[in-house]
Specification:
The protein has 2 domains: about 70 residues, Orthogonal Bundle (5,6-Dimethylbenzimidazole Phosphoribosyltransferase, Chain: A, domain 1); about 280 residues, Nicotinate-nucleotide-dimethylbenzimidazole phosphoribosyltransferase (CobT), large domain (Rossmann fold, 3-Layer(aba) Sandwich). It has a 6-stranded parallel β-sheet, sandwiched between helices. It has about 375 residues and is of the alpha/beta class. Pfam families: DBI_PRT (PF02277).
Length: about 375
């Protein structure tokens, strides 16, 4: 499945990438909402009685520019990467767990697998920066994409997370993976993540862009104690102060305080927008990626759904940055794409209603005055 050119910079530079991202236009809500609402209001139900489900329909019609879109081929892309800051003991788990969880994703035993199976979504696992060498069993797995940029980021407590070129690679990898999956038949995608300690760079990104102090962003994550949270806050404050070369450049922010999987998630969202395909953003880490995507081109927001509100402390602040209303609020904070996959099913159900429900004329039912 993987093409080595997926993040090859031989024919890519910042200007070309930014030109590609800049080409994303906003959806034509005025035109396509009118088309969707015309059918919705003729279905055998009181007008607007299905609430936000009808808004989801309007958004999908506008995103796809299709009067009757189908969203049956559901994919969740779980981006995995390690973080040098893990060696500061900011997580309850050791860094090796990232690679172990990648193995579990591919064997089908993780939470994302069970939930994805229940809603008939395909799980794709992408290694963009795991600190491990995966053997042929992984490389030959059709659900695994080897897009490794490096074996983990640098320790942001000491130095920038990655080089500028590596930040570009992470974005470009995500873009190309989205385009590849869509070419293979995906018509709705969602984001997921795996990376021990990745709440630290995610918190840094959210704190930087919101202006909210890190102590108001950092939560208990995987179950750390208060002392560890205080340490995370100190690390983030130092990283924001010293690691970002150009505060006006989102790629520089990603390079200074981000992560490979965060950059790839941002790129994946951009890739879906380029291909006019709806993308459902998962929780805290995925939202950090969504913020980077939106900072590169705010029009990306038109193509996103926010799957759920995470229980992670800083997620409300993150959500405010992208101004999206979560579909679900189930006190989840696992990541992996679990909340987004559940939300994808709700979007699919909305489209099934829109496409398959009878109109008043078809059902021989007299419409109310409000439906006319």
């Amino acid at each position: 499945m993987f093409n080595e050119k997926i993040y090859n910079l031989n024919n890519l530079n910042k200007e070309k990438l930014l030109s590609l991202i800049k080409s994303i236009s906003p959806t034509d809500k005025k035109k396509y909402y009118k088309i969707a609402e015309s059918r919705l209001n003729r279905l055998i139900k009181p007008k607007e009685s299905l609430g936000r489900l009808e808004k989801f329909v309007c958004d999908v019609v506008a995103i796809t520019e299709n009067k009757r879109p189908v969203v049956k081929n559901k994919y969740v892309c779980v981006f995995a990467g390690d973080h040098g800051v893990a060696f500061e003991n900011v997580s309850a788990f050791k860094q090796e767990v990232t690679a172990q969880m990648v193995a579990n994703f591919l064997s089908g035993g993780a939470a994302i697998n069970t939930i994805a199976n229940s809603v008939n979504a395909k799980v794709i696992v992408v290694d963009v920066g795991v600190n491990a060498d995966f053997g042929d069993d992984f490389l030959n797995n059709e659900n695994f994409i080897n897009a490794k940029i490096n074996k983990g980021t640098n320790n942001i407590y000491i130095e920038p997370a990655m080089s500028y070129d590596d930040a570009l690679k992470s974005l470009y990898a995500g873009i190309n993976i989205a385009e590849k999956l869509i070419k293979e038949g995906a018509n709705i995608c969602s984001t997921g993540d795996m990376g021990i300690a990745n709440t630290t760079p995610s918190s840094a990104i959210i704190s930087f862009y919101s202006g909210v102090e890190p102590k108001m962003i950092c939560g208990y994550g995987t179950g750390v104690d208060r002392k560890t949270i205080c340490k995370k806050v100190m690390i983030i404050e130092k990283a924001i102060k010293h690691n970002i070369i150009d505060e006006q450049d989102p790629i520089s922010v990603l390079a200074g305080i981000g992560g490979f999987e965060i950059g790839a998630i941002a790129g994946f969202i951009i890739g879906c927008a380029l291909k006019k395909t709806p993308v459902v953003v998962d929780g805290f880490i995925s939202t950090a990626g969504a913020v980077i995507a939106a900072k590169l081109n705010n029009n990306c927001l038109d193509y996103m759904f926010l799957g759920h509100l995470s229980k992670e402390k800083g997620h409300k602040t993150a959500v405010a940055l992208i101004n999206k209303k979560p579909i679900l609020n189930l006190d989840m904070h696992l990541g992996e794409g679990t909340g987004a996959v559940l939300a994808m099913k709700i979007i699919e159900a909305s489209m099934d209603m829109y496409n398959n429900m009878l109109t008043f004329d078809e059902a021989d039912v007299i419409a109310s005055n409000k439906n006319k």
